[in-house]
C-alpha cells in the first residue's frame, strides 16, 4: 500500500516538477504570479516565483511523508491497512490535486488569466469528481484516525462509524452526480457556490448523524472516572 502511494507521489512529483521548471525558466525574476483565485476565476492573490513554482512540489513531498507514517503512528494502524481503497484514493486525490494545481498556476503565469466560466466549471467538475470517488470507496473505511469521516462519535463507536460511512457513501455519490451535472449544464459561478454549500451541509449532517447513532449505541466508548 505504501509503495503504491509513493509511486503515485513520484509520478505526481515528476509532473509538478516539469511544470515548475518550465514556469520558472519562462518567467522573469521578480514577476508577480497569480497563485489564488476566487469563484469567478479572478486572481485574488499574487506571489513570487518561489511561491508559484516551489510550494506545490514541497507539499507533495510532505503528503508522501505524512501518508507513509499514517499506518505506523495511528493507534488503529491495522485498520488503516484494512482501509486500503480509501487510503489510496485519498492519496491519489491529494497528489493529483497538487500536480494539477501546479499545472494551472504555470498555465496562468504564461498564458494569462483563465476565462471565468471555464474556471468555475473546472472547479465544480473537480469537486464533483472527488465526491464521486469518495462515494465509491468511503464505505470501505475501517475505524482509524487518518482516513474516513472522523468525528468524536465515529471514533468512539464502531456502529456510528459504519452507519455514518454507509450514508456518507450514498450522499457523496448523489452530490457528486449533481455537481457533475452543474459543471456541464448548470449556471456558474452560482452552481459552484450551491455545490460547495451542499458539501458543507452534507458534512455537518453526517457529523450530527454520527452523534445520534453514538448516543443510541449501548457499546459506545465513554470516558470513565478512572480514565480521567
From TrEMBL:
Identification of the protein by name: SdpI family protein
TM spans (from-to): 52-73, 85-110, 122-141, 171-188, 194-214
Organism for this UniProt entry: Hyphobacterium marinum
InterPro entries reported for this sequence: DUF1648 (IPR012867), SdpI (IPR026272), SdpI/YhfL (IPR025962)
Pfam families with a match to the protein in the record: DUF1648 (PF07853), SdpI (PF13630)
Keywords of this entry: Membrane, Transmembrane, Transmembrane helix
Keyword match Transmembrane: yes
Domain DUF1648: 31-60
Highest taxon in the source lineage: Bacteria
UniProt key word Transmembrane: yes
